[in-house]
C-alpha cells in the first residue's frame, strides 16, 4: 500500500482531474439546452445550431491526436494546464459573441488542440501514470466517469436557471470560474510526466486527420438539404482518411497514431463501443430538449429537470463500475451497458411528448444513464490499459477521438433524420430507433473483439 502522504497527494490529483472533466462536460450539456434560445436570438436554422454543437466536437476530435501526442512528448501537466487556459478564454468569447458565426468560432476554439483537446487526453494519461495498478485505476476511472454524469446533472439544471434569469450568454460565463479553479489546482498538485520515445510532431498526418473529420461532419449535416455537397464532402473525407493511413504506415512507430495500436483487440473493441455510446448519448441530449421546447411542451427549466434521471443514474452507478468490472469483467459490463442504452433510447424516443407516457420517457432516460454508467469507466480502462505507459497520452487521445466522433456524427446524423421525418414525434422515433440499432450492432462487434483479447 502506498504511503499515506502519497495517497493524499493522489486524491488531490484526482480532484483536479475530475474538476477539469466537469468543466468540459458541463459546458457541453449547458449548450445542448441553450440551442433553442440561441436559435431564437440569432434566427438560426437547425443546421446552424448543429454547428454550434459540432464546431466544438469537431475541433475537439480533429486535434485530440495532437493533444495526446504533445502530452506524451512535452508533458501531460503542461498540456493539461494549457488546455484549461484556452478553454476558459474561448468561453468568454462565446459569451460576448455578436453573431452565430462568432459563436461557432468560439466553440471551435474551446475544443481546439490547445483547449479541451489537451485537457481530456492529458487527464486520462495522468490517470494511467499516477495509478499504474489496474484495480486502483479502474476504481479511479469509475469516479472519473461519475463526474461526467454529475456534470450532466449540473449542466441542464444550472443552464435552465441561467437561461431563465440571465439569458443564453450567461451559460458560457458559468464555466469560467470552474476553469480558473481547476487551473490553479493543476499548478499546485498535478505532477509532471512525459515519455517521448523518439516520437515527434507529425503535421501532415494532423492536417489529413482534421480534413477527414471536418468533411465527414459537413456530409452528415447537409445530407438532406444539399446532397451534392454531402456527397463531395464524404468523398473528400474518404480520400483524407486514406492519405492519413498511408502517411502513418510510412512513419511506423514514430507516427502521430501508431497503427499497431489498432491491432490490439481490447483497444479496438473499446473504440467501437465508445463511438456507439456517444452517438446515442449526444443525439438524445440534442434532440429531446430541442423538441420539447420547440413544441411548447416544456420550458428550458422543465427540460433540464426532465433530463435529470439520466444524469443521476449515471452518477450513482459509475463509482461502482470498478468493483463490477472485477466481478463481471470489462467485456460484459461494456457491451451490456450498450444494450441497456439501446433499450433506453427506444423507450424515450417512442414515448416522448405523449402526456400519459411521461413516466416511460423518464424511465427510458434512466436506462440510458444506467447503460452509460456501466460502460464508460470499463471502456476508458480498456483503452488506456491496453497500451504501454509511454503511449498513455496517445491512447487517451484516441479513445476521446472515438467519443467525439460518435458525438459529432450522432448530432449530425440523428438531427438530419429528425428533420427528414418532419420533426416532432415521427422524427424522434426514427432518430432514436436508428441510435438504438447502432448501440446493438456495436455491442456485438465489441463483444467479438474483446473476446479475442481475452483469448
From TrEMBL:
It comes from the Bacteria. Residues 13-454 form the Major facilitator superfamily (MFS) profile domain. Keywords: Membrane, Transmembrane, Transmembrane helix, Transport. One of its GO terms (molecular function) is transmembrane transporter activity. SUPFAM superfamilies: MFS general substrate transporter. Pfam families: MFS_1. The keyword Transmembrane helix applies. CDD domains: MFS_MMR_MDR_like (cd17321). The chain crosses the membrane at residues 55-73, 80-103, 109-131, 143-164, 170-191, 203-222, 228-247, 267-288, 300-320, 332-352, 358-384, 396-418, 430-450. One of its GO terms (cellular component) is membrane. InterPro entries: MFS, MFS_dom, MFS_trans_sf. It is found in: Membrane. Its main location: membrane. It is a multi-pass membrane protein. This is MFS transporter. It comes from Ottowia oryzae.
Amino acid at each position: 500500500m502506498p504511503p499515506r502522504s502519497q495517497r493524499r497527494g493522489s486524491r488531490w490529483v484526482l480532484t483536479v482531474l475530475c474538476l477539469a472533466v466537469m468543466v468540459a462536460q458541463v459546458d457541453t450539456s449547458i449548450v445542448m439546452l441553450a440551442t433553442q434560445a440561441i436559435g431564437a436570438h440569432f434566427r438560426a436554422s437547425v443546421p446552424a445550431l448543429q454547428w454550434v454543437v459540432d464546431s466544438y466536437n469537431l475541433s475537439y476530435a480533429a486535434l485530440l491526436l495532437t493533444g495526446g501526442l504533445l502530452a506524451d512528448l512535452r508533458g501531460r501537466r503542461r498540456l493539461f494546464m494549457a488546455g484549461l487556459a484556452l478553454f476558459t478564454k474561448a468561453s468568454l468569447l462565446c459569451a460576448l459573441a455578436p453573431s452565430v458565426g462568432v459563436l461557432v468560432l468560439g466553440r471551435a476554439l474551446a475544443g481546439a488542440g490547445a483547449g479541451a483537446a489537451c485537457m481530456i487526453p492529458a487527464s486520462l494519461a495522468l490517470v494511467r501514470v499516477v495509478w499504474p495498478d489496474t484495480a486502483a485505476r479502474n476504481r479511479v476511472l469509475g469516479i472519473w466517469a461519475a463526474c461526467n454524469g454529475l456534470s450532466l446533472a449540473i449542466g441542464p439544471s444550472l443552464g435552465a436557471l441561467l437561461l431563465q434569469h440571465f439569458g443564453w450568454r450567461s451559460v458560457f460565463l458559468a464555466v469560467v470560474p470552474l476553469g480558473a479553479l481547476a487551473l490553479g489546482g493543476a499548478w499546485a498538485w498535478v505532477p509532471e510526466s512525459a515519455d517521448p520515445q523518439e516520437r515527434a510532431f507529425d503535421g501532415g498526418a494532423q492536417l489529413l486527420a482534421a480534413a477527414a473529420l471536418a468533411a465527414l461532419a459537413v456530409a452528415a449535416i447537409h445530407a438532406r438539404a444539399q446532397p451534392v455537397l454531402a456527397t463531395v464532402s464524404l468523398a473528400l473525407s474518404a480520400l483524407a482518411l486514406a492519405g492519413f493511413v498511408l502517411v502513418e504506415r510510412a512513419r511506423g512507430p514514430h507516427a502521430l497514431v501508431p497503427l499497431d495500436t489498432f491491432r490490439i483487440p481490447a483497444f479496438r473493441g473499446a473504440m467501437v463501443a465508445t463511438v456507439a455510446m456517444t452517438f446515442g448519448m449526444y443525439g438524445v441530449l440534442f434532440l429531446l430538449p430541442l423538441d420539447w421546447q420547440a413544441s411548447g411542451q416544456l420550458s428550458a427549466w422543465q427540460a433540464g429537470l426532465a433530463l435529470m434521471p439520466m444524469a443521476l443514474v449515471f452518477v450513482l452507478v459509475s463509482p461502482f463500475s470498478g468493483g463490477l468490472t472485477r466481478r463481471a469483467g470489462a467485456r460484459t459490463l461494456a457491451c451490456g451497458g450498450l444494450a441497456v442504452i439501446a433499450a433506453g433510447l427506444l423507450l424515450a424516443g417512442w414515448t416522448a411528448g405523449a402526456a400519459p407516457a411521461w413516466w416511460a420517457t423518464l424511465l427510458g432516460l434512466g436506462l440510458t444513464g444506467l447503460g452509460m454508467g456501466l460502460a464508460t469507466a470499463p471502456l476508458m480502462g480498456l483503452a488506456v490499459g491496453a497500451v504501454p505507459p509511454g503511449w498513455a497520452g496517445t491512447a487517451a487521445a484516441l479513445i476521446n477521438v472515438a467519443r467525439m466522433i460518435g458525438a459529432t456524427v450522432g448530432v449530425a446524423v440523428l438531427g438530419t433524420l429528425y428533420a427528414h421525418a418532419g420533426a416532432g414525434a415521427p422524427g424522434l422515433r426514427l432518430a432514436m430507433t436508428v441510435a438504438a440499432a447502432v448501440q446493438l450492432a456495436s455491442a456485438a462487434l465489441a463483444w467479438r473483439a474483446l473476446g479475442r483479447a481475452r483469448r
